[in-house]
Amino acid sequence: MAKGYWVARVDVANEEAYARYRALNAVAFEKYGATFLVRGPAGKVVMGTPRKHNVVLEFKDYETALACYESPEYQAAKVFLDQVGEIDLVIVPGTAP
After folding, report:
1. Rg of the chain over CA atoms, in angstroms?
2. How many whole angstroms separate alpha carbon 48 and alpha carbon 62?
3. Which backbone phi and psi does 94 adopt, to 5 degrees?
């Protein structure tokens, strides 16, 4: 079964909201078994619009990745994410092994 991934790119304009978001998203990420593969600065942007932070989360499968996003736990955190700044977030399935 293919894994599921969140790929996020974030420009933080409101550090307080981002700190609150990170504190709350941990509840959902733990419940749904998320693993951080990337959690850091932009690195070298070779194409597209740069963002200050890049995050890649891995889930056991695509359905779990979607369920985490739609969960009440994550939606409580997302209230603060909506106040953070510019964000790109996609949820994608991995390739089959």
Report:
1. 13
2. 25
3. -80, 180
| 53/61 Cα distance (integer angstroms) | 24
Domain boundaries, the chain: 4-93
* pTM recorded for the entire structure: 0.91
Alpha-carbon gap, residue 47 to 89, rounded angstroms? 17
Q: What secondary structure, in 3-state letters, does the chain show? A: CCCEEEEEEEEECCHHHHHHHHHHHHHHHHHCCCEEEEEEECCCCCCCCCCCEEEEEEECCHHHHHHHHHCHHHHHHHHHHCCCEEEEEEEEECCCC
* C-alpha closest to that of 24 among 74, 65, 90: 74
CATH number attached to the domain at 4-93: 3.30.70.100
Please list the rounded mean pLDDT of every run of 10 residues in the chain (97 residues). Answer: 94 95 96 95 84 95 98 96 94 90
